[in-house]
Inverse folding.
């Protein structure tokens, strides 16, 4: 059991030292601006299918190019830990024409490992799976926060 907690701590340590301040500033701005396509504020939960750990999840999506979007994530775990990290995802129209598919890989450093993401997103719902080089894997699920739909 001690090894599990140590592994979890090492996996999430980079999030402890990331800049939450930048996330919270971007979150406030996104909450005051109505969404534009998939851009804007998102909130929901994450769940590790490896060990059952879970927490709150928020995201701010910003378009970088026709197919690249930055997803700035903020996650909580346990009752006292939280952190943020950016990930660039490729976003393309879904084959069935309903929304978009997303994929990406992000290196969170020596202690966090490499994460890959795959999922779907439309203007109201975001669902993705993640896998890490540290053997963790799970799901992200988010929807639009109510205030973000209307602005201040």
């Amino acid at each position: 059991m001690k090894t599990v907690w140590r592994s979890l701590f090492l996996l999430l340590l980079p999030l402890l030292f990331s800049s939450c301040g930048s996330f919270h500033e971007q979150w406030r701005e996104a909450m005051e601006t109505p969404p534009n396509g998939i851009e804007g504020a998102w909130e929901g939960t994450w769940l590790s299918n490896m060990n059952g750990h879970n927490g709150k999840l928020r995201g701010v999506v910003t378009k970088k190019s026709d197919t690249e979007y930055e997803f700035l994530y903020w996650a909580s775990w346990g009752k006292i830990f939280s952190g943020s990290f950016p990930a660039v995802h490729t976003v393309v129209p879904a084959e069935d024409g309903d929304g978009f598919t997303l994929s990406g890989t992000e290196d969170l450093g020596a202690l966090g490992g490499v994460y890959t993401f795959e999922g779907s997103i439309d203007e109201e719902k975001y669902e993705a799976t993640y896998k890490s080089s540290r053997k963790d894997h799970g799901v992200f699920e988010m929807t639009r926060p109510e205030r973000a739909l209307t602005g201040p």
